[in-house]
UniProtKB/TrEMBL annotation:
Entry membrane topology: Multi-pass membrane protein
InterPro entries given in the database record: Metallopeptidase_M50B (IPR052348), Rip2-like (IPR044537)
TM ranges: 16-35, 42-61, 90-115, 127-150, 162-185, 206-228
The protein's name: Site-2 protease family protein
GO molecular-function terms, A-Z: peptidase activity
Domain of life of the organism encoding this protein: Bacteria
GO BP terms in the entry: proteolysis
Main location: membrane
Known cofactor(s): Zn(2+)
Localisation: Cell membrane
Keywords recorded for this protein, A-Z: Cell membrane, Hydrolase, Membrane, Metal-binding, Metalloprotease, Protease, Transmembrane, Transmembrane helix, Zinc
The family this protein is said to belong to: Belongs to the peptidase M50B family.
């Protein structure tokens, strides 16, 4: 790794991120205590804010790894401040993923930080820069699911448990989608340094459409079933049941008719 050089102000955490973090904490407390008159509203705000925090950390991981790999320009671009407004495509990386969560309960991967790859030397470093983002989603999922696989759910309110389960679902889907070896996604970025120049040149024109291609495939019932079978298997491995994720999404979408079973489940 090269020595990272940035000014102190370039690494200062953005007030925007701190505000999102504060919303996460307050709405998490409201979900835990049942303070909100309508639990679904608290769950919605908590999961949405926590999801945005994870998106910021995903992009920060890319930028921080790139910094230590040789791209010292990431600081001046604002990528180390965790400010989502500094991203290259804030719409694609923040707004669109939130819309997808609201509409379909799936963690949409976003690529927002522009890394100057020419400053980075070594194929392993390039691969690590690409892998850093989805690995952050994996870590976030591990934190969300810790009460489940540590068998530490005693005393955890049902609504908070359901919210954590749904948030874990988003992190798992984001990690799996990001790691797909499709041009434009991080999984391809991990493999790209090891491909021949001719292969990379032939694949490059398709990179802007990689994510669209993936979501088009997910509309195919057979592909969709396989994808969510993998997601469900990963969540079961983390001791999260289908009931937990179902009730989490049900509470999150509070504007629909809430399943009373989830509302009264212990």
């Amino acid at each position: 790794m090269t020595t990272a050089t940035t000014r102190r102000d370039e690494r200062r955490i953005s007030p925007v991120f701190l505000g999102i973090l504060a919303v996460t904490a307050v709405t998490g407390w409201a979900t835990w205590t049942g303070f909100a008159a309508q639990p679904g509203v608290a769950v919605f705000l908590f999961v949405t804010a926590a999801w945005i925090v994870s998106l910021c950390l995903h992009e920060y991981a890319h930028a921080r790894t790139a910094l230590h790999s040789g791209d010292i320009t990431v600081g001046s671009k604002g990528y180390l401040s965790l400010n989502p407004l500094a991203y290259t495509h804030a719409l694609l990386s923040i707004v669109l993923p939130v819309i997808f969560v609201i509409m379909g309960g799936i963690g949409l991967p976003g690529g927002a930080v522009f890394i100057e790859r020419g400053r980075i030397r070594g194929r392993w470093r390039h691969s690590l820069v690409s892998a850093a983002g989805p690995l952050t989603n994996v870590l976030f999922a591990a934190v969300c699911t810790a009460p489940f696989w540590l068998d530490a759910l005693d005393g955890v309110p049902a609504d908070f448990r359901f919210a954590l389960a749904f948030l874990a679902l988003l992190q798992v889907t984001a990690a799996i989608l990001n790691f797909l070896p499709v041009p434009g996604l991080d999984g391809y970025g991990v493999l790209e340094p090891w491909l021949s120049y001719n292969v990379k040149r032939q694949v490059e024109p398709f990179a802007p459409f990689g994510l669209l291609f993936v979501f088009a495939l997910l509309w195919v019932p057979a592909v969709n079933n396989v994808f969510f079978d993998v997601v469900d298997a990963a969540l079961r491995g983390l001791d999260i049941s289908d009931l937990d994720t179902y009730c989490g999404q049900n509470l999150y979408r509070f504007w629909q008719n809430t399943d009373q079973f989830c509302a009264v489940s212990p």
